[in-house]
Write a structure and sequence with these properties.
Blueprint: E1 51-57, H1 60-68, E2 72-73, E3 78-80, E4 83-90, H2 92-100, E5 104-105, H3 121-126, E6 132-133, E7 140-150, E8 153-162, E9 174-178, E10 187-191, E11 193-197, E12 200-210, E13 216-221, E14 225-230, E15 232-233, H4 259-272, E16 277-281, E17 292-297, E18 305-312, E19 321-325, E20 335-339, E21 342-346, H5 359-369, E22 374-379, E23 396-397, E24 422-426, E25 436-441, H6 449-464, H7 469-477, E26 479-483, H8 488-496, H9 560-571, E27 575-583, E28 588-590, E29 595-596, E30 601-602, H10 608-629, E31 638-640, H11 641-644, H12 652-660, E32 663-669, E33 673-675, E34 680-682, H13 699-722, E35 729-732, E36 736-738, E37 742-748, E38 752-757, E39 782-784, E40 788-796, E41 817-823
Parallel strand pairs: 6-14, 7-15, 19-21, 25-26, 25-27, 27-32, 28-31, 36-41
Antiparallel strand pairs: 1-4, 1-5, 2-4, 3-4, 7-8, 8-12, 9-10, 9-13, 11-12, 13-14, 16-24, 17-18, 18-22, 19-23, 20-21, 24-26, 28-32, 29-30, 33-34, 35-37, 37-39, 38-40, 40-41
Length: 825
């Protein structure tokens, strides 16, 4: 592969190894928890060590319970026949709790894997059974059969569905066979795996290696149905990426970058290229990389008190000390003394001279008597605070815990306080007349590759504008809006404090979860904070627990970061495409993104034409990813996110598509890579080593290949904006006279939505819409048993209407299509 490297002067981080780094005791802490050191911190305030474990859940119901309980599950979840497998970021205590909930921990060699060997299929597993050819009431349908190659190995992926799949007893089995090319017999029988989600049958599927591309497959059901299907190419014969041009400049990013570096570079790009770039500042400031200073004093029992400052730590809270003092004497009242930033609680005594102040009483006294230094004091978690408070050996220092530096993190103080997020806007004609594309990275703080991938794409646009024809076409015919880090507070916390941070830093927790030992569990999952299909409306995949990593927030759009996205798309109505870039898992998806678990009721599915446009765009985007180093995002990982991944209530894609008509994609970069040396697929991670094996998991390689895909998304948008050609459609088979009932369907020359009537009326936008047979399937088939006239028109993804027909106006020259199927019995 030809490569021209042009590096931009960026402050790059050293290579960081691993998905999760083990937490350490804060500097200056008293590791014994005895409280004997001056201004000591309690051992309770030390960060707990976390690690990544592979897990297996029984299904979506268990997934909901686990995430609602606050457990941190990685994006790399995948459906397997007996449930869901994935990874969890947990402490030792949390791992025990997961086990108690029925979650199984998987060893290195455990878990589901597709079999490379033919197993004999249904004949071997169910015995001989007669099968019948399909009629119009099909019991078996091939959803898709895709052939692809990666790293020199061929693969076949097949999905098939039976109308009797929901049947539980006996469970319907399906068998897959393939030929070895045109004219060869079917063979290599394999049993397909049945997938069920939230109690609803999805489909049967299989993925396996093949050395020869088959022409056809045959699928047989244990209930008697059989059908054949043609094999299609998935991501084969893709056009070369822009990077194949020896004059094309790319490979700008030297390492991971924290938000300050990302924003500084965005502003410098706007300064360097004023003719095609500028900065738009989002109006809602984040809550800030800041915390109230805190301490937990007195252990975890009924005598413990949690104390929080009124001022932010960096604005004086970190200077506060609290001391519980024992005085000689009897019948002494509880009191509070304040000298500068030193708060002394004079503990009360009873008539016998014994200490008598409870934790609840001390907390009340601190809030009322600290002269405004202490904003919040309360018993520890769910305690009633009935225990008698003991004196401290020394003053206890309050701290915001933001003064720690993780090994490998860059030098320099992180800016405290609310942050203003800049948007890098690139386009020659920034007047709202060209289609806009929004690239939103790092909603989730620990996902570092999406930020470098997005910046790499921005660098390619500005550096190649004057020298590369296709880049010039993109910049001249689109407007691109880059949000390089939509969660700067959380991202800084991930870089400097806790590598596994996912959410922002806003603490919405009540007293029971507000002590500093919980500080790595606070924040809102920004991609659960939107308005369509939200957890507040009963959809699955978001949590009401403030310590859950999928916490949806106290209300829809409660967070400034999510408010900003809505502000942006409402101000710039030309934004017609959006990519929310995440990691890791390798999925590329769209709507529906959420469902109500009881009955698996999804948010509205896109019309068949939009769905086809999503698939077409995905193939283009993913072909360019593959062109870099043959990384293949497999078809099972493409489609509606609730179909290929899980339900994520209140995600941004759902809101932007259903509210504003934006083609909104979600992308989990860093997917599995086939390793020919081992014959296995190797998964990614949130923070992979930057310069790893270029053929396996590597932050640098992921940045480059997925930047290829983002560049292709720009070309999709530019083509969409220039599309002025009407779609064409037809009824297959066409108008004519038939002796027997006939099956007919619509076909279009490009992704388009069809509106039709069969009752003699004129078709309008209120007419029935041609739908898919089932999700992930092509259009429905009409079984015509009596003479019927179809009237219809089609609209493509760019809004062009077939024959310039206007469905809103009645005209004698109506240009809708018509075809009559005459049945003569």
């Amino acid at each position: 592969m030809r490569r021209r490297r042009l590096r931009t002067a960026l402050v790059a981080l050293p290579a960081l190894v691993g998905t999760v780094l083990m937490a350490t005791t804060p500097a200056g802490a008293d590791p014994t928890g005895s409280g004997t050191a001056a201004s000591a911190r309690s051992q309770l305030e030390d960060r707990e060590s976390v690690r990544l474990v592979r897990i297996q859940l029984t299904g979506a119901d268990m997934l909901d319970k686990v995430t609602a309980a606050g457990f941190d599950l990685e994006h790399g979840l995948r459906r397997v026949p007996n449930g869901i497998e994935g990874e969890a970021v947990v402490t030792a205590e949390q791992l025990a709790d997961l086990t108690a909930m029925g979650v199984r921990t998987l060893g290195d060699d455990e878990g589901f894997a597709w079999s490379d060997q033919a197993d004999g299929g249904l004949q071997a597993t169910l015995g001989a059974r007669s099968v019948q050819p399909l009629n119009h009431e099909q019991t078996v349908r091939v959803v898709r059969a895709d052939w692809f190659t990666t790293k020199g190995q061929g693969f076949l992926y097949v999905e098939a569905r039976t109308t009797e799949g929901q049947q539980a007893e006996p469970v319907v089995g399906m068998q897959l066979e393939n030929d070895s090319g045109r004219g060869t017999p079917f063979g290599f029988a394999r049993t397909m795996s049945r997938f069920v989600d939230s109690g609803q049958y999805m489909f049967h599927r299989n993925l396996f290696k093949l050395d020869v591309r088959p022409k056809q497959i045959r699928v047989t059901s244990s209930t008697g149905g059989v059908t054949t299907g043609e094999v299609s190419d998935w991501l084969e014969d893709a056009p070369p990426p822009l990077t194949d041009n020896p004059r094309y400049k790319w490979d700008f990013i030297d390492g991971y970058m924290h938000p300050q570096q990302l924003y500084a570079r965005a502003k410098e790009i706007a300064r360097q290229y004023p003719g095609i770039a500028e900065i738009v500042y989002l109006p809602n400031k984040t809550n800030g990389y800041q915390r109230k200073a805190q301490a937990t004093i007195g252990g975890t029992g009924q005598e413990a008190v949690v104390v929080s400052s009124a001022a932010w730590g960096h604005e004086g809270g970190n200077d506060i000390t609290v001391e519980f003092v024992d005085r000689p004497g009897a019948n002494l009242p509880l009191g509070v003394e304040v000298t500068g930033k030193a708060v002394r609680v004079l503990l009360g005594k009873d008539a016998s001279g014994a200490l008598a102040s409870t934790a609840a009483q001390v907390a009340t006294a601190l809030e009322s008597g600290s002269q405004g230094l202490i904003d919040r004091a309360h018993p520890y978690r769910t305690n009633a605070g009935t225990g008698i408070v003991a004196p401290t050996a020394a003053p206890v220092a309050l701290t915001d815990f933001l003064d720690q530096k993780r090994v490998g993190a860059p030098e320099g103080e992180v800016p405290r306080g609310p942050a203003t997020i800049p948007v890098l806007r690139i386009g020659k004609h920034r007047d709202g007349k060209k289609p806009g594309v929004l690239i939103q990275a790092q909603d989730h703080a620990r996902e570092w590759v999406p930020a470098t991938t997005s910046l790499e794409a921005a660098e390619r646009l500005v550096h190649n504008y004057r020298s590369d024809r296709e880049t010039k076409d993109i910049v001249d015919n689109t407007e691109v809006f880059f949000i390089l880090s939509n969660n700067p507070d959380g991202a800084n916390y991930s870089f400097y404090n806790f590598a596994s941070q996912r959410r922002n830093m806003t603490n919405h927790c009540p007293d029971e979860n507000a002590d500093p030992a919980r500080r790595n569990s606070w924040g809102v999952d920004l991609n659960r904070n939107y308005r369509v299909g939200s957890g507040h409306d009963g959809y699955s995949g978001a949590s009401t627990s403030c310590v859950s990593d999928t916490f949806q927030g106290p209300a829809e759009l409660s967070e400034p970061e999510s408010k900003n996205i809505i502000w942006l798309v409402e101000k710039y109505r030309n934004i017609k495409f959006m990519m929310s870039v995440h990691s890791n898992g390798g999925q590329l998806f769209w709507q529906p993104g959420a469902y109500i678990a009881d009955g698996r009721i999804t948010t509205p599915r896109p019309p068949l034409g939009d769905e086809a446009f999503y698939w077409q765009s995905a193939a283009r985007i993913l072909s360019q990813v593959k062109a870099h180093r043959e990384t293949v995002v497999t078809p099972e990982n493409v489609g509606g996110s609730s179909d290929v991944l899980y339900s994520s209530a209140g995600n941004v894609r759902e809101d932007l598509y259903h509210t504003y008509g934006i083609y909104a994609f979600g992308w989990e970069v860093g997917g599995s890579i086939y390793n020919p040396a081992t014959g296995n697929w190797q998964g990614g991670s949130f923070q992979p080593v930057w310069e790893g094996d270029p053929n396996l998991v590597s932050g640098h390689a992921e940045t480059m290949e997925y930047a290829n895909g983002i560049m292709e998304m720009f070309r999709v948008a530019a083509d969409w904006g220039k599309d002025k050609k009407d779609p064409t459609s037809k009824l297959v088979p066409g108008a004519g006279t038939y002796r027997d009932p006939v099956d007919v369907r619509f076909e279009t020359n490009e992704p388009a939505t069809i509106y039709y009537t069969t009752d003699g009326s004129r078709p309008t936008l209120e007419s029935p819409r041609y739908e898919a047979t089932e999700f992930r399937e092509p259009g429905e088939v009409f079984h015509v048993t009596e003479t019927t006239t179809f009237r219809w028109f089609s609209i493509d993804a760019a809004g062009n209407i077939e024959n310039n027909y206007d469905p809103t106006k009645r005209d004698r020259r109506d240009k809708y299509r018509t075809a009559t199927i005459t049945i003569r019995k």
